[in-house]
UniProtKB/TrEMBL annotation:
NCBIfam families: PEP_CTERM (TIGR02595). Keywords: Hydrolase, Signal. Pfam families: Glyco_hydro_18, PEP-CTERM. Residues 34-340 form the GH18 domain. Residues 1-22 form the signal peptide. GO terms for molecular function: chitin binding; hydrolase activity. This is Glycosyl hydrolase family 18 protein. One of its GO terms (biological process) is polysaccharide catabolic process.
Amino acid sequence: MKLVRLAICAVAVAFCVKTALADTAISAWDAAEFRIWGFVPDWTPQSQVTSFSSDGVYDHVSDVLYFGGVRPTSSGNLVTTSAGAQHLSKLKAHAATHDFRLHMSMFTVSGGSVDDVWNSIVGNSTNRANFVSNVVNLMDTYDMSGFNLDWERPSTDTEWANYTQLAKDLKAAFGTAREVSVDDFGFSDSDWDDTPVFDARTYDQLFIMGYHYPADNGTNLDYESFAAYKRNLTDQGVEKAFVNEQLVPGIGTWGTDGPATVSLKNIVAANPNLPADATTFTGSVRDLNGTLRTGTWTIESRYQVRDKVQFAIDNNMPGVMSWTLHYDATNEMSLHRVAHHYAIFATQTPDLNLDGLVDQQDANILADHMGSVPGWTGTNTLARFENFYMRGNWEQGDHDGNGFVRQDDADWLADRFTALGLTLPDRLAYTGTFENFADGRGTTGRWLGGRDTGGALEETGNFTQHTAGYLSYTATGIGAAMHSTAAITIRNQNAAERYDQLNTAPRTMEIPLETPIDLGTDGEQYFTMLVRQNTDPLLSNQLSSPNRELALQFLDAAGDNQFDIALHGQQQQISIRSQADSSGEDVSTTGFAPDTTFMLVGRIAGNGAGENSISAALLPAGANIGNFASDSFAWDITANNSADFNPVITKLGLQSLYEGSFTVSNVWIGTAADYFALPSAAIGDFNGDGLVDLADYSVWRNSLGISGDYLPADADGNGTVDAGDYAVWKLNFGTSAAAVAQATGVPEPHTLVLVAIAAVGLVARRR
């Protein structure tokens, strides 16, 4: 929801809690328009303050208020205790590292009683001015963002008027650069607004120091009542009264009403499975001094904290505060974490990793989890939301608790990033393009994920992009290396999706060809691809389904499938299917065994006014794969089309039905010259990997003595693989193809590939 902000609580950009870092990151607190303040008192051991940074104490707060270590005197001077100096030095450094806003809070005094010293300061203009000057210097020294008045509280009309005047003087000295906040009890003192000096708008926030109370229980001991008491200070007119945009509910992180004060951190240590609705704890636990105590304590529950956060959001309040930061647990039982998590959920702020920033790391987390199943939790009841929180669904990208990380989650995050003015990372889930599925030949740009008729992305969680070499394949012969090493897995419907009857649409992707293939002209094009059908992830009904099918489609400019090569899992078959030619042949053969990687080799033979044909061979690991552009190559199947069927193929497509799981490499497609006359062969790089090394020697050795066109190891171009080609390899051994090209003037491989592909019409010929 959009929260309304008045000038009193956001007088400048400085009060928006760390604004956007260019267009790649923004403060989650700023994006949510919600803050969490935590107090650190001066009695905290120095060793504990030092370890705050590594212990995760600051992970879920936007602001830290240091309390008590600097104490005013009656003249307005400030006395910093030895502990205070150490604390402030460390807190200043931590604020810079963890990007929280540091404030100073004062109550304890030096050289007299609390009331006497504060009255001496606020009641004398000279002392007030001295105090304000010293506070400004202190805040400059420690890079502080605000000052908090914690004198609870004046007792007469005059004292209240003087107190308000001090706040006004501080505000005047700070300008728009710093905030002034004040602490008060749940019940209000009616004297506060009795004089004309009163103006609640002087304060940026009022922290309501009523802890362990619910948001609204229908009594006067709840935050609904506490807030009303503050708003009802209207003796100087409604325009000078407190408004919700200033009021901050409090959260207590300690156990009260027991034999001694105990921290929630120690309670959680005693009961790691503390129930979410527990408002009391009974047992033995160590107090703040380390003494073991037995009894019953009143505590804040996680349910109660969420209620307070929702109460604050519903009433346009700026956030919640805690006493204290260091009493809290630092694991999932942390009330600061509970408040942070709920606030960003309720405001739909995509800080998935709860680090206080909305940035590309959050978007990458969701993209990395696409297709995963955290499990359904729901969020519409207290118990369901607690399950959503404890199972970490939000942190995995399941933003609504439906149990899946799917395209709707990615679309939600993309919409939120756009609304916040943030740039999304280059990931399939957001761009619809396969950023890591590269190494294609004869195609242009990236593979594109399928979209529905409205232009919305289909389920990109069905695809997993792998690192190069993921799909292992070993064979012999000069054609064995003529394939991409990039790989992608296209998954089946999983059990949870089947239960909910989800994700049954075909998985589709396509890519434009670099040069269209016109079957109405003479010429041959070849294509290769590695493929494996995976049975381990299949459900029992899918194992027996005849619909486990992957199709390599050949599409025209309109996106219509003209013909395809289909691989059938349950039938263990490969087939060529004519999709647009009613007179075209459909042929198939067996050999597509499960859980085995094959190399698919195909040929498209145009024949002018005559029939064109499609051929395919499926070659298992260990096969000897020769020059498949040779007339002698043995194809497994060939299908002929009618003489008047002459489509122009402009795109390739891959389609898998939801019952199957397949891992495939990228597709290479081109003329015989693109495969077997690699430009890099001229300098000894016989396998086209950009290096002249032992792998190239293996290609030369396996091809030695072979004669013909388009030989990958024919460095000197004489039509035969012989000793002359070995000499070229030996001369350039240990170098890169690019380096040799620069030294000799030989065009780099990429340039020659482009030239070769552009010359398809010149080198293509009918076999």
